[in-house]
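Q: What does the predicted 3D structure of EamA/RhaT family transporter look like?
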Amino acid sequence: MSRTPLPGLVASAGPAADLGPASLGSAIAALVAGALAMGLSPVLVRFVSPEVGPFASAFWRVALALPALYGWMRWEEARAPHLRRALAPSVLLAGLVFAGDLLFWHLAILGTTVANATFFATTAPVFVVLFAWIGLRRRPAGRTLLGLLVCLVGGATLVGQSVQVDPARLAGDRDGVVTAIFFALYFLTVERARALGLGAARVTFVASCITAVVLLGAVAWLETRPVLPHSLSAALGLLGLALVSHAGGQGLLAVALGRLPAGFSSLVIFLEAVAAAILAWILLGEALGPLQVLGGGLILAGIAVARPRRSARTA
């Protein structure tokens, strides 16, 4: 039995390479749906920020999602008992780096403009490719690099007009870059855990438990603002952040990373920017100009260029 690596990554030790059209289509669909779910997070974080501090909102985002993730894990493993495997170090590391991602992401959203935070966070795929290339010896194919370049141009076009250079916001901009680094590590660690045969639900649930513990410590030691919301609307905002952005977004991302390489999957961060722009247009009345539409189109084109192709040989 022979396997041909996905063209998106050369010499990759990532997910299974042989994807039939139905399997590839469902994996990409999960990736897109996860991006749309995660794209709601900046709007919800800003919505609850008058009542809940950044560390607290990051904690509630994960903690309130745990019951749903646990139920999903039990359901998935009841249907597929072979997914009930011993934990791997990569799952534990995924929980730690995701805690860093959320801490700095929420700080970036509140420490700079949403456009700046989004712009710097969209550099995560660059770090995924670099870390995979340097640390894992995965040389990216030309199609992957071309798609990444087109997506970067699209992301810059999408939010470039709104990006502001302000010395008072440099700390928030820095937090956006650190967010991208942590998010890149999260992609690679989840991909590794899924390659070892762990189910998407178990990976997401266990990693979220670790993330919640770390964030609880951050709340206890660092939070200076309110921890609990005092209005029903803010409480519902936190619940939406947990169930939609975390359970839905991160869960679907873990599903996709079981079938797609991290280099391609990391382009989901660009779809988050598109989703955030559309939601801001619908919910906040922020009109989309021609450049924003062009940027969104370039992002979709870049993802289309970089997408994995079905291998010529099947197992």
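A (community wiki): The structure tokens above were generated from the sequence. The first strand starts at residue 9 and ends at 10. The chain has a mean pLDDT of 81.
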